[in-house]
Amino acid sequence: MKARLLDSEAPGGKRQNLAEKLPLSTPYVVQFFPIYACNFTCKYCHHSIPKEKRKFVTDWPVMKYELYEKCISELAQFPEKIKTLRFVGMGEPLLHKDIVRMVKRAKELDVANRIEIITNGSLLTHEMSDGLIAAGLDRLVISLQGTSADKYKKVCGIDLDFNSFVDNIRYFYERKGEAVQMYLKIVDIALDDEEDKKRYFDIFGDICDTIGIENTVPIFPDVSFNKDLYKAKGIKTQFGLPMKHVKVCPQAFYTMQINPDGKIVGCYAVYYPRILDDCNERSLVDIWNGEGYMTFRRQMLDGRENVCKFCEECAINDFRIFPEDDISDYAEELKAKYKQL
Ligand SMILES: C[S@@+](CC[C@H](N)C(=O)[O-])C[C@H]1O[C@@H](n2cnc3c(N)ncnc32)[C@H](O)[C@@H]1O
What we know:
By secondary structure, the protein is of the alpha/beta class. The protein has 14 helices and ten strands. It has helices at residues 18-21, 65-75, 99-108, 126-135, 149-156, 162-175, 194-204, 226-232, 251-254, 284-289, 291-300, 309-313, 316-320, 331-339, and strands at residues 4-6, 29-32, 82-87, 112-119, 139-144, 181-187, 210-214, 255-258, 263-265, 277-278. Strands 1-7-6-5-4-3-2-8-9-10 form a ten-stranded mixed sheet. α3 (99-108) links the parallel β3 and β4. α3 packs parallel to α4 and α4 (126-135) packs parallel to α6 (162-175). The termini are far apart. It binds S-adenosylmethionine (SAM). Residues 38, 44-45, 88, 90, 92, 118-120, 143, 187, 214, 216-217, 219, 238 line the site of S-adenosylmethionine.
């Protein structure tokens, strides 16, 4: 296998101690959530919940290009470059009709060190691959759900032409060039046994730069599959690191998510504890330094349980935390810093 196997490490690369860098004048990660829709219904994911049972996520499901254009030009006004600009959120980003144009624009304005997409890969046609490569995408992450069409049907309820799917991934890999990174990952529950694991590495191990098997973790409230995961897991994070209950959620200190309707949230929870702001009304730089974010951060430094019940019970951090991001032990000194802002 040519690809490097990632095991118990951050897929995006080495992290630095976050607490020492705070407060940040520029977010490290800006995540565009371009479309609240998915063509898969993975049984461990929020999209397995029937639509009528889902709570509020966004006022409208597809980000308008005009709003994207406003945001991307404002990102260029931050004092530093964003580290990672990511297209993901609770949906399939390649479903957005302007996705290639969005990547191209972000590249033209040079707003981030790395522009990446996390996708299920099912819409990665040759045309899509050519478009994304030409647009300047820096990293493509493909979330895999099995080593056969049968498994795709079982895990995510879709009929997939598995051979064409693999060929499409190979097409991207062979044309992307060395500057573009490609990470393929699969959820552990999609692999039956050691033989299936071997099949996974045989099929995909030579058509990506890094490859991994991630733990499926119970992070979505209301997903019925969660209870099976709780039984089986509880000791490792999604990335294979020891699980830890963090007192202070660090996400709002370094990330910004822009929802399809322009509402800004400071975390990747599907039902947010709070909408922090709205970029239809204010600029992203003002929002990052504004009262919505600052009040939330100050409250968070007193501990998750002091923010709201939702944050107290949220499993995302516990199952996704990297040790470098845990700012809990620095809360007192950070409180003094954030008080002055
Ligand atoms: C929600 S999806 C959205 C992006 C895109 N549709 C995709 O499939 O990559 C983002 C990523 O979260 C992962 N994911 C979703 N639910 C998860 C869970 N309960 N445990 C671990 N990973 C999960 C998916 O496998 C995927 O890699």
